[in-house]
Design brief:
7 strands; 1 helix; Immunoglobulin-like; three-stranded mixed beta sheet; alpha+beta; 126 residues
């Protein structure tokens, strides 16, 4: 009987670490906030992550507070791209995600696009 308890205890001791190995995350999370200055967020901007090499792309939108999140991002190298109406496109390459990462891209400031118009007048002199 004592031998059975010893075998059972050895089994559980040997498998105790297996649960924690399985619980480790194979994916990460990338978050951030899009602004156009220190106090102005950009709601509903299009935010994309593009995996380097494969070109796999995921797209989301910022919420009303300018916040975005990508959950379950596989390990790899990525480019982050932000597009919003009335703003210049923004891009950052070289974002490396590792298993279990919880990465915050921080406050990303995008620049208002300056719209210029020109008028060309042609005519003949009398």
């Amino acid at each position: 009987m004592l031998r059975n308890w010893a075998l059972l205890a050895a089994f559980f001791a040997g498998t105790a670490g297996v649960g924690s190995l399985c619980a480790q995350q194979a994916n990460g999370t990338l978050t951030g906030t899009v602004t156009d200055g220190p106090d102005s967020v950009v709601p509903f901007a299009s935010v994309s992550i593009i995996r380097t090499g494969s070109g796999d792309t995921r797209v989301t939108r910022t919420n009303s507070a300018g916040y975005f999140t990508f959950a379950f991002v596989p390990a790899g190298d990525y480019t982050l791209v932000i597009d919003a109406t009335g703003f210049l496109p923004w891009k950052r390459s070289g974002i490396v995600m590792s298993p279990g990462d919880k990465r915050d891209a921080g406050s990303i400031v995008i620049i208002v696009a300056v719209r210029s118009e020109s008028v060309k007048v042609t005519g003949e002199m009398d």
